[in-house]
Amino acid sequence: VTITTRLLVSHLSGIRHYEKDITKVKEEKEKANRALKLTKSHQDKELKEKEGKGIEKTDCVKQKKEHDGETKSRNSKPGRKDKEFEQEEYYLKEKFESVIESLKIFKNDPLFFKPGSQFLYSTYGFTLLSAVVERASGQKFTDYMLKMFRDLDMLSTVLDDNEAMIYNRARCYVYNKKGRLVNAPYVDNSYKWAGGGFLSSVGDLLKFGNALLYSYQAGQFKNRNGKLLPGYLKPGTVAMMWTPVPKTEVSWDRDGKYAMAWAVVEKNQQYGCCRQQRHYASHTGGAVGASSVLLILPEELDPEALGTWPVAPPRGVIVTIICNMQSVSLNSTALKIAREFDKEKWAQ
């Protein structure tokens, strides 16, 4: 069996997530697929019933209901009970001295499927990926990442180390079984630095988003007098990272596919004056007592005007939200904010 880094970053490796029972994983997937089919069937029925009542009204109502329904189902009760957080391994308290050591948690477990054949989101896949980075770089993974954060000017992004004195560290919260707000339990994230072990701020995440968007767009702008600096990554690298990968899926946006460590929605519009998808990349985060999202909506650049515009990258809208509450869906909120800012920008 061969597992490549590309399979790891797109969650196609077959390595398990926190649930060890493959039967339960399959049941949850089937349940989610049934719910999605029912939703689609209901939407198709509504559309047919409205045919003949005016295409403009039908499309507007459809789009609004679709969006409102999505928002309501995902955000109706912030901090709601999430089966995901019933998994015991979310609450590990053991401190691991290295990412290599943390591989013992899952290294002897069977793969859930042949690598490359199916999609399964796996935090442990990224734990293995961090071990690859450690061996390839010859440095401890944590040291390697902290150096990268310095290069990106993300000075508030640090390891979530319980012993360290970290200024302005937020207290995290969860709802208990009675629905009351309580402090989140203690966990040690040293077993999954790459999959959810860093603390950051909205300012730092915006810097990260800007660095990626700049890298993505830099090749499209004319470098006048050598004033345009290269991006942190090559444009082709970011384009590859944001290219949807077959057989993948995204839990926080049914229009999206998983790419390389990012969820991506492709630009798409089938009919005039109807629903329009904008190209964007995002990733949400769920931790014990916290939720987050980073969403990047690139500006649609006009190739003919690029040479005359007195502007430089990054061009687009970046939204990041962090809240100290568990199981809060934030992607649809971030997308709404991004669209409003994008709309306002073009109205000027």
UniProtKB/TrEMBL annotation:
<feature type="compositionally biased region" description="Basic and acidic residues">
    <location>
        <begin position="41"/>
        <end position="84"/>
    </location>
</feature>
<dbReference type="InterPro" id="IPR012338">
    <property type="entry name" value="Beta-lactam/transpept-like"/>
</dbReference>
<dbReference type="InterPro" id="IPR052794">
    <property type="entry name" value="Mito_Ser_Protease_LACTB"/>
</dbReference>
<dbReference type="InterPro" id="IPR001466">
    <property type="entry name" value="Beta-lactam-related"/>
</dbReference>
<dbReference type="GO" id="GO:0019216">
    <property type="term" value="P:regulation of lipid metabolic process"/>
</dbReference>
<dbReference type="GO" id="GO:0008233">
    <property type="term" value="F:peptidase activity"/>
</dbReference>
<protein>
    <submittedName>
        <fullName>LACTB protein</fullName>
    </submittedName>
</protein>
<dbReference type="GO" id="GO:0006508">
    <property type="term" value="P:proteolysis"/>
</dbReference>
<dbReference type="Pfam" id="PF00144">
    <property type="entry name" value="Beta-lactamase"/>
</dbReference>
<feature type="domain" description="Beta-lactamase-related">
    <location>
        <begin position="100"/>
        <end position="325"/>
    </location>
</feature>
<dbReference type="GO" id="GO:0005739">
    <property type="term" value="C:mitochondrion"/>
</dbReference>
<feature type="region of interest" description="Disordered">
    <location>
        <begin position="33"/>
        <end position="84"/>
    </location>
</feature>
